[in-house]
Specification:
Length: 127
């Protein structure tokens, strides 16, 4: 038996939620291509975040296509969430199986907006 752990300073979070989130991200990235739902397009999981109590996990993804195709993908992912949650439960050892929340990663749209603003600046001759 080792020495007792020193108490964690207030405000410092454990690294466990990030490790669990990364494990969940890997499991889902492997499972998503095997889904048969035609609404789910080409999805890339860009990140995951777990709550400190590990009861919730937010999965961030990007997808290609129009707005309606993206909405269809979101609906397909919502529909597949119970199955994906069971897959996570089989592959990741946790006391509680986290609720999965899929959220579209806004990074792509933000990048497109920045590109558009830079293009406008160059056209005006300001940049």
């Amino acid at each position: 038996m080792g020495a007792p752990r020193a108490p964690r300073p207030p405000g410092e979070s454990s690294a466990r939620p990030s490790r669990v989130a990364e494990e969940i991200r890997e499991v889902l990235a492997q499972e998503l291509p095997s889904l048969k739902d035609p609404r789910i397009g080409f999805v890339t999981i860009t990140g995951a975040k777990a709550s400190p109590d590990l009861r919730h996990a937010w999965i961030y993804y990007t997808t290609m296509g129009s707005d309606s195709e993206r909405r269809a993908t979101a609906a397909g992912l919502r529909s597949a969430t119970p199955h994906l949650r069971s897959v996570v439960g089989r592959q990741v050892r946790l006391k509680f199986l986290p609720e999965l929340h899929f959220e579209q990663d806004p990074t792509r749209e933000q990048g497109e907006r920045i590109d558009e603003l830079l293009r406008q600046l160059h056209e005006r001759g300001d940049g």
